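Action item from last meeting closed. Structure (229 res):
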């Protein structure tokens, strides 16, 4: 504690020495300053943006995905220091981390997979297609499907991706890993069955009661007879 106190005194002395030559200029500035406002200033920037056909919005030179049900709608975007709030019909529909710099993008595959399933041909030329492979298992699964089915692989992969978005990305990735390790081609049906099985609740088990040996009661009766005799 003594070291911390001595350090605090050192800082106070140092700051006092450094500011001693600035007091005159500070007094001149203070005369011109007005009182702070009674309420906090709102530093939020508000924008109106239309959701594009690819289920994306452009905000301050960066691209963000929103849910495909918003395609064509005009949304209000409130830009904060660390996040974006997307408002529609007077309620928040998305909260997104704010990107820094320019020409960046943040694509959430769960936002766009519904749209892509309806238009599977758009997947092959989708500008942000790499964002649709959340783990290496997904990418390997897609490559395996292409080798097996060619262009029909897109539709099968998007159906698998839909399960990931709606149910569990971890379970889908585990399922794909098992199939790939067995050197087989993954299918939507196999993945769906695996995920459904893993999501089943554990069965309720009653208490385990050992079978009662009734012959023990006979021995007790024999003891009572002997004591009575």
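Sequence:
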């Amino acid at each position: 504690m003594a070291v911390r106190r001595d350090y605090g005194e050192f800082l106070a002395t140092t700051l006092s020495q450094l500011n001693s030559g600035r007091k005159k200029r500070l007094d001149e500035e203070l005369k011109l300053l007005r009182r702070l406002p009674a309420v906090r200033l709102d530093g939020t920037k508000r924008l109106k943006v239309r959701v594009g056909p690819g289920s994306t919005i452009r905000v301050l030179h960066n691209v963000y995905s929103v849910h495909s049900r918003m395609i064509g709608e005009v949304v209000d975007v409130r830009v904060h220091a660390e996040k974006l709030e997307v408002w529609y019909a007077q309620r928040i529909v998305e909260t997104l981390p704010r990107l820094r710099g320019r020409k960046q993008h943040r694509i959430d595959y769960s936002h766009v997979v519904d749209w892509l399933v309806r238009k599977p041909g758009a997947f092959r030329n989708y500008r942000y297609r790499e964002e649709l492979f959340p783990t290496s298992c997904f990418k390997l699964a897609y490559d395996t499907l292409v080798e097996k089915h060619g262009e029909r692989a897109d539709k099968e992969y998007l159906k698998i991706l839909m399960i990931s978005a709606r149910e569990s990305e971890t379970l889908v990735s585990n399922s794909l890993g098992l199939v790939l390790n067995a050197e087989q081609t993954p299918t939507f049906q196999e993945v769906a069955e695996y995920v459904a099985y893993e999501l089943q609740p554990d069965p309720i088990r009653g208490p385990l009661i050992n079978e009662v040996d009734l012959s023990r009661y006979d021995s007790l009766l024999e003891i009572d007879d002997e004591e009575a005799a």
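Note appended to the action item: Helices lie at 2-20, 23-32, 109-118, 136-149, 153-166, 169-181, 188-198, 215-228.
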